[in-house]
Amino acid sequence: MKTLLDMRPVYVVGIGLHRYQRLSDKTYVELGLTAVREALNDCGIQWQKVESVYHGTALLGMAATRPMLRYLGATGIPMAQVENASASGSTAFRQACLEVAGGVSDVVLAVGVDKPEMPRLAAAKAGIHDLAGSRIVPFTHFALLANEYMSRYGVSAEQIAAVAVKNSRNGANNLYAQRQKARRLDEVMAGPPIAGSLTRLQCCPIGEGAAAAIVASDEAIDRLGIDRARAVRVIGSVTRTERVYGDGKNWDAELTRETVEQAYRESGITARDLDVIELHDAFTIEELLYLEAMGLCGAGEAARMLERGETDIGGRCAVSPSGGLLAMGHPIGPTGVGQIAEITRQLRGEAGVRQQPNARTGLAHMVGIGAVCVVHVLQKPQ
């Protein structure tokens, strides 16, 4: 099986976003065009040079792509709408990378756009009765995982809540973030819990927004005069789906472990090489579980790693310098592409006060119900 390193090199050359925010009267077209135009301006090319589009969205509905992008010019290029739950944007980006790496196109746009709406899950039509039904919704599931983690490793609710403190601090310095206010631990812990020990600020906001990333080949970079010094190479792209795991296993963490391990092998790196991580922290406990699954520390050690400042900007590895889903927000379709934009900004050295010093290698991670996991590894060329 071929990996990205076996194929033609592919680079992120342009990034753009519309701020993640609460539901507004803006149309999805306005949101998406803002991000796409910013990405085009970022790499200095015209829309007519884009050869293909993958659009990640989970909530907009059928045939949303061309009605949005026709305002840039009806050029007749192929467009595909991608739905993969929370990993929709990540999957769109993967398809864009594979198209360039495979030599099908030289310049491809991955864009994610969504506006909040009650999702309709196809599994309800599968004809198989779910014994849990609606009794275990996502926040209940992760509250149970948090309780099990605290009991097993002697970790306090405050230590888990500290994830939201860190990420709110990062989000406060991100103009694209939905939550732009740094929070103290007492603020994060305040108010009635949503479920178990999880309070409102330990759960990500679902809003609207858009994110775009343009990927290109070496040939296109030279032909179009794109600044090669700002191009970031994608060296790994892996997606996996859930298997049947042993009793007592957390399937999201096990799926993450398998997917990240494959991404490490295919990109030729280890956890020690990572300078920046953007991960699926829809709930505070997820960051701890996934960092352990990624091999940054042993089981039960992530909370102490956080306390030592190792996951802060300026620490051993900056985790969610954008603010993550907890502060940047989780508009579903755009989220995975937004992670790529943040890592690209970090590896370029353009993140301002959120800059991780000397960042060279970054990892983007998303999971989606179903369950699916998508991981990308980006690296600044030497």
List keywords for this structure.
382 residues, alpha/beta, Peroxisomal Thiolase, Chain A, domain 1, 10-stranded mixed sheet
Task: Give a structural overview.
This protein is α/β, with parallel strands linked by helices and about 375 residues long. The protein has 2 domains: about 5-115 and about 205-230, Peroxisomal Thiolase, Chain A, domain 1 (3-Layer(aba) Sandwich); about 135-175 and about 235-380, Peroxisomal Thiolase, Chain A, domain 1. The protein is built from 12 helices and 10 strands. The chain has helices at about 30-45, 65-70, 90-100, 140-155, 155-170, 185-190, 220-225, 250-265, 285-295, 300-305, 325, 335-350; strands at about 10-20, 50-55, 80, 105-115, 210-215, 230-240, 275-280, 320, 360-370, 370-380. The protein has a 10-stranded mixed β-sheet with strand order 3-2-4-5-1-6-10-9-7-8. Helix 2 (about 65-70) links the parallel strand 2 (about 50-55) and strand 3. Helix 5 packs across helix 9 (about 285-295) and helix 8 (about 250-265) packs across helix 9. The radius of gyration is 20 Å and the shape is globular. The protein starts with 10 loop residues before the first strand and ends with a strand. The relative contact order is 0.20.
What is the structure about, briefly put?
This protein has about 375 residues and is an alpha/beta fold. Helix content is about 35%, strand content about 20%. The two termini are about 25 Å apart.
Element pattern in H and E: EHEHEHEHHHEHEHEHHEHHEE
According to DSSP, the number of beta strands is: 10
What CATH architecture label of the largest domain applies?
3-Layer(aba) Sandwich
Fraction in beta strands: 15-25%
- Shape field: globular
Q: How far is it from the N-terminal to the C-terminal residue, by CA?
A: 27 Å
- CATH class of the largest domain, anyone? Alpha Beta
How confident is the prediction overall: mean pLDDT?
A: 95
Low-pLDDT ranges = none
Q: What count of domains describes the coordinates?
A: 2
* Biggest sheet strand line-up: 3-2-4-5-1-6-10-9-7-8
Overall SS class: alpha/beta
The amount of helix comes to 25-40%
Using only CA atoms, what is the Rg?
Answer: 20 Å
CATH homologous superfamily heading of the largest domain: Thiolase/Chalcone synthase
